Amino acid sequence: MAFLALKTLSRKEGTTSAILAVALLVAILASMSSIVNHINSQTEALSRIPEIGEAYLILSNNSTSITDSQVDVNLANLVSDSDVKYVIPQKVFAATLATNSSNHTAVVRAVVDVQTFFNVRNARVKGDIANANEMQANVGEILARLASINVGDKVSVNVGDKALKVKIVGIIQTQTQSDAELIIPMKLANHLFRNDDKVSLIEFAPKDPNMKDEVINHVTKLLPPNTKIIKVQQLKTFMQNVNNQTLSFLSLWSTIVYIVVIAASYVLATRLIAESSYDLAMLRALGAKKMLTFKLILTYTATTALLGSILGLALGIAGSQMASTAVRWMWPSFEISPFLEVGQALQILLLTFSSSIVGCVYPAFKSACKTYVEKQPL
Prior knowledge:
Layout: H1 2-10, H2 14-47, E1 56-60, E2 71-72, H3 75-80, E3 84-98, E4 103-111, H4 114-120, E5 124-127, E6 136-140, H5 141-147, E7 154-159, E8 162-173, E9 181-185, H6 186-190, E10 198-199, E11 201-206, H7 212-222, E12 227-231, H8 235-275, H9 277-285, H10 290-330, H11 342-369
Parallel strand pairs: 4-9, 6-8
Antiparallel strand pairs: 1-11, 1-12, 2-10, 3-4, 3-7, 3-11, 5-8, 6-9, 7-8
Helix pairs in contact: 1-10, 2-8, 2-10, 2-11, 8-10, 8-11, 10-11
């Protein structure tokens, strides 16, 4: 009797649409998971690359970015007494660069010794290096192209109501963020700011990389409590943060999908009960117990969700593979290989199945508790 009743319920018109609805939700989740797996595999591969940065930065403890950091420039003298290769105080700020043709907002980096700064960056200079005793500056090649700046041009550096006119004596290439910056001597920056004793950061590097921990501990003891030391090019930490943020987004999206499955299962069970009231009443009239009605509704809804989940997994995996193949055809240099692990597929099936049961329990229980008279057709 139970099998025949379940077969009768499965022939209702809404069964196919319910399976497709669940399949669509699961397909979206499966495709996103497969793409996230590819992204995570790439970031993990990058995080295994040995760290190549040897520099450290001294910043103010309460700063959220380099431009709002303020540290005492005299701290550079304390650091230079340690076993370090170089010490470069720097003042970093945003300014408007006014040329003959246009205005352009850019980052300006002021350093005490421009030559040392370029040596550390392994810079290639087209032209000359800015002289601290002249109104001269160097511009990064990226900024030079964006702002149409050439060697010999005069540029006005505007910060608030103050302006400084400098002559571009050289274009630099460092393959760092400095390629998009204007580099000026510290003396010129002090004309724009009153706090000559403050800089944005102090950059230094240990002489012996094998002794970096000892050097950092020694420098830390010399610094005041309102400062902090951070290492540049922390690739592994950055990639871990990227992975964590991606997984957080996927978890949030997965939660939304399962909540929608719960709601869909509730609607499906309620609709089934309403459309099958006569059939369920006949079962009760033939002697079926209340628990049988409960099991029928539960089994029907869970089976629908399970079939939808299997179909959705197949559509999601196939869809992501087809999309990645199409992208590779259009852009051969763009490589993406989405994949879904077996454990993840089983997890999606299990959570979707569990969510469907949670959604249909209440209407199934409510239907089982109704009396035979309440279920008679009008």
